[in-house]
Amino acid sequence: MLLRDFISSKKGLLIDIEGTLISEIEYEKAFPDTYLFLKILKQKNFLLLTNLARKSRKYVSRKLSSMKINVPHTKIINPTIVAAIILEEKYEKPVKVFLIGENGHLEDLLEFAWIELTDHEKVNAVLLGASRNITYQQLNFAFRQILRGADLIVLGGETWSLGKIYDDEGEFLMEGAFAAALEAATGIKAIRAGKPSEIFFEVGLKKLGLDKHEVVMIGDSLQTDVTGALSYGIDVIYVNRKSRSDEEIIKKLANVKKKSTLYIVNSLNPSEVLKALDF
User: Most buried residue among 148, 235, 254, 269 by CB atoms closer than 10 A?
Assistant: First the structure.
């Protein structure tokens, strides 16, 4: 079966951004096959599901537009938006929040007038996102709030990542590392609002108004896109841009409780042959 035919059989699509449609958001470079893929995407019900939260979804929408990928920010779901949905469902408004994060997290949270950001009083939740300027005071305040009953919601989950801030470029500790430290110190498990958590996919389905069997997840990450979708019961198309062998893919997914079907393509060219991989 061709990629275009499989997509036409689904009512909705959940699509990753970095590594799938483009390389990295700051580099403003889309993969050539993305533009062929966009031609068959125009008439589909879709959302972009991304763990990219250090930049706001309005920023991401603008960057995609500069690459001639026109997607309104309301069709982009990231961990910050998922966290806001969690808070809205769990607490009476207004909800007091302590945020550790960068400007992208802040800009997204400002869309919700009922979220009150504070750093000096008891809060309902600590939101922990990517922050390359994190301080001991922030971590200790978060630690105390969690001990007093605040939820710890992680906006992503990577333990480290390559990046650049000003003239400092290289490896950076990420929110996942600090979340692990807070979990160890408090004995309280964090809520993870990014892929591969089930709630991330639940939000996507709710926004589309579709059931699991009616959609497919398209992404390039075995750890987040593929693992999350397979475990939740959504069919997934793995875009194998790193040319991994079937054996390598199966090995990396050895511990996944598969509830749906994994398909593989080498690109997003609509004429690409879709291959199901059993394991």
Answer: 235
> How far apart are alpha carbons 206 and 192 in whole angstroms?
18
Of all residues in the chain, the percent with pLDDT exceeding 90 is 86
pTM of the complete model: 0.92
Residue-wise pLDDT for 228-257, tens only, equals 999 999 999 999 999 999 999 999 999 999
- Which residue segment(s) compose the domain that 59 sits in? 3-78+211-276
Domain count, the chain: 2
Q: Which two tokens stand for residue 15?
A: 């699509």
pLDDT class for 169, splitting at 50, 70, 90?
Answer: confident
Task: Please say whether the beta carbons of 99 and 109 come within 8 A.
Answer: yes
Instruction: Give the position of tokens 């922030």.
Output: 138
Which of 134, 161, 192 is the C-terminal boundary of a domain?
A: 192
- In this structure, are residues 82 and 193 in contact, taking their beta carbons and an 8 Å threshold? yes
What type of residue is 138?
Q
Q: Are 170 and 263 in a shared domain?
A: no
Helix and strand numbers, DSSP H then E, in the chain: 10, 14
**Amino acid of residue 97:** V
The encoded tokens of residue 251 equal 């090995």
Is 138 inside any structural domain? yes
- Residue 9's identity, in one-letter code, is S
Asked, for residue 204, whether it belongs to a domain, the answer is: no
CA diameter of the chain: 57
Which residue has tokens 């004995």?
Answer: 187
Q: Assess if residue 197 is contained within a domain.
A: no
Cβ proximity of 44 and 13 under 8 Å: yes
**Could you tell me the two tokens for 185?**
């110190």
